[in-house]
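Question: Hello, beginner here. Any chance you could explain the protein record under this note? Any guidance would be welcome.
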Amino acid sequence: MSSVIRIAERRFLRFFRGVEHTSPEELLHTARVLLWVRWLGLIAALVEIHYHVDYGSLSHILNTFYCLGFLAINGYVQWLIHRRETVKPSWLLGLSVLDLAVISFSISISGGFNSPYFVVYYFAVAVFAYVVTSPRFVLPWTTLVAPIYSVLSFTVEPVLDLAGKEEQHLFYRVLVLYAVAAVLSIISGLERESRRKGLERERELQR
């Protein structure tokens, strides 16, 4: 069973052309930075949950456990990376999926299109594009995020005000989402290509 899982993982990671050329040290550093950024975001969310609320209410209790659950997941992943001193690309993919789930759920319970949390989608897409870099995977990922946000905007109350032409604002938000993904993917790819060429020149000089 374990051999089947390893084979499936290798085939799946063929999509990660950008990650293939990333050193283990770079992946480890990236994962650590992202985990600390998540700590800050989750702690800020926990503070917000306890600010001007009806303490002891059902919504307050559910939001608290919701936030604590993701804090526990983040802590476990950080402990796992600290213990093994390594990180797999599939772990970073898992964190990106977790980000998408957390952001989408938060938007669904905080006003849909009018939720202030939609900007965090930009962070999630930027992180994914920076880590993966390959356009053939970054584009489908962004195309997954865009419809999720669009569906939430049209279905969660208060829904888009078509009379007020709010769909235009949604269009521009999605357009910026793709722009962020494209720019980060290109910059990260060029940066790693330059780093690889530098390492190759150093090896040639050492021969």
In short: Residues 22-87 form one domain. The chain has a mean pLDDT of 79. Residues 115 and 150 are 13 Å apart (CA to CA). The chain has eight helices and no strands.
